[in-house]
Design goal:
This protein has helices at 17-29, 40-50, 54-63, 81-84, 97-104, 111-122, 137-148, 167-182; strands at residues 6-11, 33-38, 67-69, 89-95, 126-130, 152-155. With 196 residues, the protein is an alpha/beta fold.
Length: 196
Amino acid sequence: MQPNKKFVLCITGASGSLYAKTFLDKALGLNLEVECIVSENARKVIEYELEIPYGEFINFYSSKGVKFHDPKDFFSPLASGSRLTLYDGVVILPCSVGTLGAIANGIGNNLIHRVADVAIKEGVPLLLAVREMPLSAIHLENMLKLQRIGVKAFPISPPFYGKPKTLEELLVSTVGKIFDLLGVKGKIYRRWGENQ
């Protein structure tokens, strides 16, 4: 268990709210602390894809200790570099290409953009799990721009070498790789060469 690891999870309006839910579930199981920012569009996607009211989603995870921040709240402590450096990483999952573009070009229209901007300037690990297909040249250029300054920007791409039999196994393999990139220890998914 790693009780001292703390992360910020940002959920944007791209399809893939199941990934965010899986991240939260696994983080809680690993005793990680998570604070969460959910964009306005992501709230609608959560309701559509998870088929639950957003209020039910937020109430469930709040009861488990996850703290939620309003995406319009630039007075949130997370908007400050002095506070964000207390965290072990920021994950945007799923990351819309609109959010990718805003971050790559230093545009800060909401708290998610601001947190990413602060993470970059303060050297806090930042991961953008981009959910789009196909990727345009603009998307790829934005990902390359961020990659060159140390941000991990990548398309969501679940592996099949573990021979997943369920949707949950696919979700866990992707989220497990994200935890690997964050330096979180624990057997979350089956890595290449590991026995079942």
